[in-house]
Hints:
Blueprint lengths: L15 H5 L1 H6 L5 H8 L5 H24 L6 H26 L7 H11 L2 H22 L6 H71 L1 H26 L7 H14 L3 E3 L12 H19 L3 E7 L2 E6 L11 H12 L3 E6 L6 E6 L1
Parallel strand pairs: 1-2
Antiparallel strand pairs: 2-3, 3-5, 4-5
Helix pairs in contact: 3-4, 4-5, 5-6, 6-7, 6-8, 7-8, 8-9, 8-11, 8-12, 10-11, 11-12
Organism: Aeromicrobium marinum DSM 15272
Pfam family, one: HisKA_3
GO molecular function: phosphorelay sensor kinase activity; protein dimerization activity
Amino acid sequence: MTDDRESPRPTVAADPWESHGWIMGAIWLVFLVFPLVESWQADTAAPWRGLSVVAIVAFAGVYVAGFRRLDSFDTAREVHRFGLRTLAVLIGLAVVPALVIGAEALGLLPFLVAFAMFSLDLRAALAFGLAGLLTAVLVPWALGVIAELWFFVLIVALVMVSTGLVRVLDHRGAEHRELARQMTIVSERERVARDVHDVLGHSLTVVTVKAELAGRLVDLDPARAKVELDDIQSLTRTALAEIRATVAGLRVARIDDEVEAAAVALGGAGIEAELPDDPFVVDPRHRIVLAWVLREAVTNVVRHSRASRCAVVLERASITVDDDGIGTGDLPEGTGLRGLRERVAAAGGRFVLATGPDGRGTRLEVTL
Length: 368
């Protein structure tokens, strides 16, 4: 009986930058002290001074709340719309101290530029930054206080450049992460496809050979036919377990198991097998790759070679598979051989497929 209840999905901790990145923006609110002091000391009626102070405090609150909400949206379009609405509120709040303290309210401008850089789409953010820089230049110039407030131009320029660089790098980083994710998915699909092909190709080839043999023996030797059918049942169960392990990423080929499987496959096909007595001569670092090579090579010999003999030589970091069959000729390379080339290349090895040494058959050499 199987349990149909869904297993709980693993949860991933939130990105610390997404959860607490707003703190980096909030730190700079300390510089709002200057327009606050100017508002409190402004030469105007007390209600106006109080209104200016309240507007600056509200500005700080909206600014922080806006930053905290930026990461709660699912799409860039939603972020952009929220950014426009929030900027409209911030600009409206900034107008009040501007009426009370004049050009000194330019101290709010860097915050507007920073928020725009992180909330609007890149083109709109850069346009807003340039508009902020022009405001920092034109307003003091128009009021005749450019000499006293030139530093606002420098501050706004630095904020625009620094936040713009962060935004561009973050955008490129997001593109890179998405590309890496897609490549990981493709790589995993290729791994599963390659492993499933190797597992099924070998198992089904042996099952086919044994089924044909059992069919011939049903009338001639029923007892032997029963043995072959039992082997087929065992092979199919093993293949099913291997497929499950492959999909789960747990399938690992063992060199000794593959030598034994090669003996069964070649013997069942009536091919004389010359196999190594000690498969563990292979360096442990190379056994998994060479085990996969042996499996696919023997499968190809059984399926395509029409050989009468197959010899396998294992050394510390290499394998050679020779057969006396019909050779590869001009046949295109199939999925199995492409998969082997990929495995060997990933392990930094050399893959050679050529005609046998006597001009007949096929020789496959892999050296790691």
